[in-house]
Design goal:
The complex is a heterodimer of chains A (162) and B (758).
Chain A: E1 4-11, E2 14-21, H1 26-33, E3 52-55, E4 58-61, E5 74-76, H2 89-96, H3 106-117, H4 125-132, H5 143-161
Parallel strand pairs in A: 1-5
Antiparallel strand pairs in A: 1-2, 3-4, 3-5
Helix pairs in contact in A: 2-5, 4-5
Chain B: E1 18-24, E2 30-36, H1 38-41, E3 46-50, E4 59-61, E5 73-75, E6 81-82, E7 88-94, H2 97-104, E8 108-113, H3 120-125, E9 138-144, H4 150-156, E10 159-167, E11 170-171, E12 179-185, E13 190-195, H5 200-211, E14 218-221, H6 237-249, E15 253-256, H7 259-265, E16 268-269, E17 272-280, E18 286-298, H8 309-317, E19 326-335, H9 349-367, H10 371-378, E20 387-388, E21 394-395, H11 400-413, H12 416-421, E22 427-439, H13 443-447, E23 458-464, E24 470-474, H14 483-495, E25 502-506, H15 523-550, E26 557-560, E27 563-566, E28 569-575, H16 576-585, E29 597-603, E30 608-620, E31 627-637, H17 644-663, E32 694-698, H18 716-732, E33 742-743, H19 747-757
Parallel strand pairs in B: 1-15, 10-33, 13-14, 18-19, 24-25, 31-32
Antiparallel strand pairs in B: 1-7, 2-6, 2-8, 3-7, 4-5, 9-19, 10-17, 11-16, 12-13, 12-15, 17-18, 20-21, 22-30, 23-24, 23-29, 26-27, 27-28, 30-31
Classes of the chains: A alpha+beta (162), B alpha+beta (758).
Chain lengths: 162, 758
């Protein structure tokens, strides 16, 4: 065997060691090698954003990142959002606001939004609309997604400000 | 879904599955003279390299039993001719997708390229036929509703509009592409195919027929499906090839389409041209319509619906909500060297509504009548229902005019007319579109299409287990429409239990006895109707048992809040879970001979009409030609609303797709037939920035023809939006005397008409 690399990944707080070809994408590593199939592939050329995960806290298209590039870094996927049975505030808001239909793009939007919310934003609906325009959804017309992220931004801000 | 725990086909773990990669035609038209597979066969990880000859040249052939229809076979893999760029020729099977794609690059196909037919203009210019069976390139030619007095009506009309309207070729582009995982299971003597589809039973039939298996020997399971929009209600050749390979090699085989394959190689929709003559009286009354409709249906008839889906729908339903006086239409399906068209969301209705609304606006302009007023004068009115149209359709009660008036009031109150006036250099316009959409076609209506197999009815089984929980099976197959929620509501309502205790199982041919899947806004109306009937029968069983235990007449027993009780006697309550456990575990204590609690129901409505009015407010930048939809409003009537959140979500998603078809999306080709829109960089799906907030208002005209009073509504958003948006663009351009009669309206089109009018 040639072109194989031993790579260490911290995914959702758990350490994994995997042997990878150079060309293997992070998305395939997550989905196929680690069994974390919540990260979806919608276009494999970096436009749709269904495969968005957080790499050291930053949203990236995991279809455009090679697994070896994530060596020694921390990855957060949709599987890491809920606390056991308890859905995160963002996941609950997506459900409440009907921010998903077929659900295929949903993990990507959740991770994109999670990164945005981590910046402690004002959560203006126009800004939210601008941010979530990084990803594509074919089902919802985006309204529920924008409402969900806006709601959570407001709630988290309120919590922060006491 | 929210946890990432959804299971789409590609998520199903099958560690030993091989992957199929397809070698596709690099040219739009040509004759295959040689296929060289030797290098690929010896490449790393390769299990097989399969050509049409290796699998016996099977084909899928859609058939309409009409003289005007020419059946043509769609081979699973091309063998003599290639008919579009992207057509699959060879399947390479390897241990991983990476290796399969590596090896596919080693296959060489020798093709003698011929001149392609890409457009209706190419067709008119005359080139060699795409199918020998159809030397004139016309796969279906429907001359309908001939009216001997139409010509006279048009000749005498004070105003005759003679117009041509066009719509571009679009892709359904569900976020999850097509995908399948097929494996042969000796134990059950069965090929099990997990597949991203809207129509599991029809895929079963297609696979069984193509592979020479009995229906029983094929099980199709649709797990979570990441959007379909019509693309996944036809049987894809690639999936059948994968199934054929799994059967031959006795290996689990998967294929997951990438986005380039999806855009270039999967079915499209809506490339159409309408040449319409319409006569109006001086007061705006529409006197007659004569339509010649041609659909560029691509290279093949899709299975099972055939290439007649678009021309038939267009020719039949063009009049829409309007009284057209005299009517005749011709609908043709023209073969070209592009991918086939499938019944994409709305099927011709986005186009035909666009055409009728353009006619109304043009006539209003020419006759000096207000746009709403001319519509008032031509719309079918409440007192005229059931209205018998000259297109052979009987329209049941709807709220056509009420919806428009409500829409007019809402946009007035929302200040749209004031906003239209603002003076900042941008051109603003308001567009309004009325439409009805026939939904939930039952077999009587589908029978008129004369498909070799006629869809329409559906069946459902409802059973209660010993703990009182309820399982519902259906032959419809959701892909984001929230069937789990709405079916549970409908069933729980009949049984008097909490919807949380009702679980829907769908998308599995071994679970549901039969079904026609999810398309044509049919699922909740037909599948949900069948479930309601079944639940009603199960409720009768529960009332019988409760009647015996409570020593009351079953007819006096009511089911509510998880209990059965004698009507008006709350003290008589007995838990439904107690009834369930008694039937299952202590049936010896009953004289009643129920051993299980289960029932079957069916529904087969005739097809009914939902209606809506859409309004769009747009801003056009005269400097760049860029158009932005800044506000959008829908007043819709789908009868009884089972779940407002789901209805609104369907409407909004549909509107987004309609706005996309009006302004952004089009599959384009080079003059030699190469697709130019093979990625999401070129094929412009709208993002959140292009889609405005969409207000949705409801009118409720309960439907007397369905079990729940609901009418279907899954496609409506897509149907109304192109007409409303283009009307708004034309309103914005009105002072310049410019008009646009084709979609999509791109910035270059706007600049072009502005320059011409200057």
């Amino acid at each position: 065997m040639k072109d194989q690399h031993l790579v260490t990944l911290d995914v959702n707080g758990r350490e994994y060691e995997v042997v990878l070809e150079s060309r293997r994408t992070l998305a395939d590593v997550l989905r196929q090698d680690l069994g974390l199939t919540g990260t979806h592939l919608g276009c494999e050329h970096g436009i749709c954003g269904a495969c968005t995960v957080l790499l050291d806290g930053e949203p990236v298209r995991s279809c455009l990142v090679f697994g070896v590039q994530a060596d020694g870094r921390s990855v957060r996927t949709v599987e890491g959002l809920a606390d056991g049975d308890e859905l995160s505030d963002l996941q609950q808001a997506f459900s409440r606001c009907h921010g998903l239909q077929c659900g295929f793009c949903t993990p990507g939007f959740l991770m994109l939004a999670e990164a945005y919310l981590d910046t402690e934003p004002a959560g203006d609906p126009e800004e939210v609309r601008d941010v979530v325009s990084a990803n594509l959804c074919r089902c919802t017309g985006y309204q529920g997604i924008v409402e969900a992220v806006t709601e959570v931004a407001a709630a988290r801000r309120k919590q922060r400000d006491g | 879904m929210l946890r990432g725990a959804g299971v789409f086909v590609d998520d199903i773990a099958q560690p030993h599955a091989c992957h199929v990669a397809f070698v596709r035609s690099p040219v739009a038209a040509g004759r295959i003279t040689a296929i060289h597979t030797a290098a690929a066969k010896t490449a790393a990880g390769v299990r097989a390299v399969v050509t049409a000859d290796d699998i016996g040249r099977p084909a899928l052939t859609a058939v309409l039993e009409r003289d005007e229809f020419v059946p043509t076979a769609m081979p699973l893999l091309a063998h003599d001719k290639v008919r579009y760029a992207g057509e699959p020729i060879v399947a390479v099977v390897a241990d991983s997708r990476y290796l399969a794609e590596d090896a596919a690059e080693l296959v060489a196909c020798e093709i003698e390229e011929t001149a392609p037919v890409l457009s209706l203009a190419d067709h008119d210019a005359g080139v060699p036929p795409i199918h020998d069976e159809a030397p004139d390139g016309v796969l279906v030619d429907l001359q309908m509703f001939a009216d001997g007095e139409l010509a006279e009506a048009l000749a005498d009309a004070p105003l005759v509009l003679d117009e041509t309207f066009r719509s571009g070729r679009v892709a359904a582009a569900p976020l999850e592409g097509r995908a399948c995982l097929a494996q042969w299971q000796d134990r059950d003597d069965q090929l099990v195919v997990h597949l991203s589809t809207q129509v599991p039973h029809q895929v079963r039939t297609g696979i069984a027929a193509a592979l020479g298996l009995a229906e029983r020997q094929v099980r199709v399971v649709a797990p979570d499906v990441g959007g379909g929009f019509g693309l996944k209600c036809v049987v894809g050749r690639e999936e059948v090839v994968a199934a054929a390979i799994a059967r031959r090699l006795r290996l689990p085989v998967r294929w997951s389409e990438d986005r380039q394959e999806n855009l270039m190689g999967a079915c499209h929709g809506h490339e159409q041209e309408y040449r319409v003559r319409a006569g109006f009286a001086a007061d705006g009354t529409l006197l007659g319509v004569d339509a010649d409709i041609r659909c560029n249906i691509g290279a093949y008839s899709v299975y099972p619906f055939s290439c007649a889906v678009e021309p038939l729908m267009a020719a039949t339903e063009l009049p829409g909500v309007y009284k057209v006086g005299r009517y005749a239409a011709r609908g043709r399906g023209i073969a070209t060297n592009k991918p086939p068209t499938a019944p994409y969301r709305g099927v011709s209705r986005p186009q035909l509504v666009f055409v009728m609304e353009r006619l109304m606006d043009k006539a209003a302009n020419r006759l000096g009548i207000d746009r709403l007023e001319i519509r008032r004068r031509n719309t079918i009115r409440r007192e005229e229902f059931p209205y018998q149209g000259p297109n052979g359709i009987s329209y049941e009660l709807g709220s056509y005019l009420e919806a428009m008036e409500r829409c007019a009031t809402e946009i007035e109150q929302a200040g749209w007319w004031e906003r239209r006036k603002s003076d900042d250099g941008l051109l603003r316009g308001i567009g309004i579109a009325n439409f009805s959409e026939r939904t939930a076609y039952g077999t009587a209506t589908m029978g008129m299409r004369k498909m070799q197999m006629t869809p329409g009815f559906d069946v459902s089984h409802v059973r209660m287990d010993a703990s009182g929980d309820v399982t519902v099976t259906t032959g419809t197959c959701g892909h984001g429409q929230g069937h789990e929620t709405t079916f549970a509501q409908v069933v729980a309502d009949r049984l008097g239990v909490d919807p949380a205790r009702v679980k829907l199982r769908q998308g599995d041919t071994d679970l549901a006895s039969f079904g026609w899947g999810t398309w044509g806004s049919r699922s909740l109306v037909i599948g949900g109707g069948a479930a309601a009937v079944a639940a009603g029968r199960l409720a009768d069983q529960l009332r019988e048992i409760a009647g015996e235990l409570l020593e009351a007449d079953a007819a006096d027993v009511e089911l509510l809040d998880g209990h059965a009780q004698v009507r008006g006697v709350p003290d008589s309550r007995i838990g439904i879970d107690t009834l369930a456990s008694t039937v299952h575990f202590r049936s010896h204590t009953l004289t009643h001979d129920e051993q299980l609690l289960e029932a079957r129901g069916a529904a087969n409505p005739p097809g009914m009409f939902s209606n809506a009015t859409h309004a769009a407010l747009v801003e056009v930048d005269p400097g760049t030609g860029d158009t932005k939809v800044v506000d959008y409003l829908v007043v819709e009537d789908c009868g009884v609303v089972i779940n407002p959140m789901i209805v609104d979500g369907q409407v909004r998603g549909g509107v987004a797709q309609g706005i996309a078809a009006a302004l952004y999306e089009e599959m384009t080709y080079s003059p030699d037939g190469q697709p130019l829109t093979g990625t999401f960089m070129d094929y412009l799906m709208p993002t959140a920035s292009e889609i405005p907030p969409i207000a949705v208002h409801h009118l409720v005209t309960p439907c007397e023809l369905t079990e729940t009073g609901a009418k279907g509504m899954g496609e409506g958003g897509t149907i109304g939006a192109p007409a409303a948006v283009v009307a708004a663009v034309n309103d914005a351009l009105r002072d310049y005397g410019a008009e646009i009669d084709s979609i999509p309206v791109r910035p270059a089109d706007v600049l072009c008409v502005l320059r011409e009018s200057a």
